[in-house]
Please model this.
Amino acid sequence: MALRLTLRTLLAYLDDTLQASEIKEIGQKVTESDAAQELIARIKQVTRRRRLTVPPATGPNGMDPNDVSEYLDNVLPSEQINDVEKQALESDVHLAEISACHQILTLVLGEPALVPPKSKERMYTIVQGRETIPYRKAERVKPDATITSEEEASLALSMGWLRWVLPVAGVLLVAALGLAIYEILPPRDNRQVVDNSVKVPDDPDAGKPKDSDKPKDTDKPITPVDKDKPIDKTPKDGDTRPIVEVERAMPPSTKRVAVGNYVGTTDKLPTALVTRAEDKGEWQMVKPGTSVYTRDTYTALPGFVGVLMTKTGVGVLLRGHVRDFTLAPLVQDNLMESAVVLHDNDKFDLDLTLLRGRIFLRNQKDAGACKIRLRFESEIWDVALNNKSDEVVIDLSRTFTPVINYRAGEAPDAKCYVAFLRGDAELKIDAYHTHNIEVEPRKWVRMEYDSSRKTTGPFKEKSVPEITSKQPPEPSLFPESRRASLQKMNAALNDLQVLLSTKKSPVVALQETLEKTDPASRLLAVYCLAALDEVGKLIDVVGDGDVNHWADREAAFYSLQRWVSRSATQAKLLYEEKDGNATGVLLDKKFKKREAEKILTLLHPLLAEELGKPLVYQDLAADLESSRIAIAEMAFWHLVWLSPGVKLPMGFNSAAPIDERERYSGEIQKMIDKKLLPPAPPPPPVAPPEKKE
Model:
């Protein structure tokens, strides 16, 4: 019977567990199949890769260890074999697990350990008699006179390493124990500080020895003060000197108090600020003039601004963004809504946590500096704006990248830019790093925080870029083709501001806007629904069956990706399987388990080990034919992003009839067969020629 070219037969072929005739048959098939050769190369690569994680036992990408063992033992039910092999082909982590287990089992079961009979006898005769008596001393075992010279040499070779390892281990253990005791004991300080400011009256008997001056056994010599070494400030008995302590940043206060007012807007910009009490309950619109409270979440919707004024004289402007206003995609496209939480702190003029987005902080005092405590991620920075009108802008965004294994629970990469726009300031990052900032006219100074790297800066820039402006960008900065959409979005912002002011619930106003015929208004509603965590409505939009709403579907997909990037656990609200029970918004929307898992995969970027794999492109091409419009839409945009420099066929619409989408999928498959996809990797950078001296 001919063998099928499956993953299991390839593993057996690689680990040399097949018969000679089978090896020849499989070898012939491998030479004729490019896919098999690629899979073999991939297996060798993943089994040698360091720091590769273990597949989770549960969840969307979980793999039951029992399924792996039954698969390798060829007893897994046939209906589950395809699922296991599909997981392995889609994920390097799962492929490495199955391949490594097969290799280990081959070595262990194929080459059993052979122990000489004499060695077994000696092992059984090492300890004899009353082994269980705890206080019995071990007796020295006399050498067996019957052991041959060959066996003695074998024993010496196998056990000789203990003769030097055990003494060395003992020395290291004693050294480690001594070091631990030294660290535990309190520090000793024999130095004494002599106060020369106190004058001692002349003593007629000076220079004569006294009984009290005679040395005693407990007396210690007085050593001079070493000015090059810090003095131990640990208080001693009777010591009344003050203790100098480094200030430690405390967690935010739990008090809920009014700390300022909502001003509304400046320069007649569209304003829309929503709040939610202590991050729970329903969102509500904030009316200008109302009080602002600590512990509540305040969010400026995308495209709108909201200005808060604290009682201590700090102005906080929250600036939302929409992609129609984007000048620098890498900086601005990850900024949509802006959200903050204020805290009560009597030591600072402002204590706030930046959750995401862009905010401007400004000193509005008549005189003097304002002290600001800025919290984001796990960082706590202190900013002092020394003079009136001094201003700083702060951006915080998070994104998943191919090098972040979201399946293993890794958090998205967080980036924070702190740019000082005018005035003099002081930035204290921690107890050891403080920067004095001086901003020259029409210039700016910025600091950069990246959760995957250390904080860098300050950097001085030649001019203040347009992307730091509170105002929408001037149409002249955009090409002619984009100016019309810029004007339409400005009109949509003004219309939505009026509608939000007349509705009690912002969600109701956004739902009405989503039903308008104006494309710009619908896009704005999609962005704002994501800011209010209305992901169920976004899923409905990305699955909209209207062929004319292709821009709405793309905007909803983009907004869902930004929403998922808020944290490592955000996607679990869409779908999570725990202890055999599955929950999430996708299940509420009647998506099947496999469909929900597919959507979670498409809402994240492909992992680094998956890039450039033909199998990935084949799966995406197959997803274009999905009966779920949402899956087809997401798969298409992944194809676009993964094919830079490649001209894909025109005319795909995820809401088109299935036969049209099948035809488009076939064209993508032909490009894969012709090796036009995946695109060729860019050439490595060429090193500059060495200069001849």
Remarks:
- The radius of gyration is 35 Å.
- The first strand starts at residue 258 and ends at 264.
- The chain is about 35% helix and 15% strand.
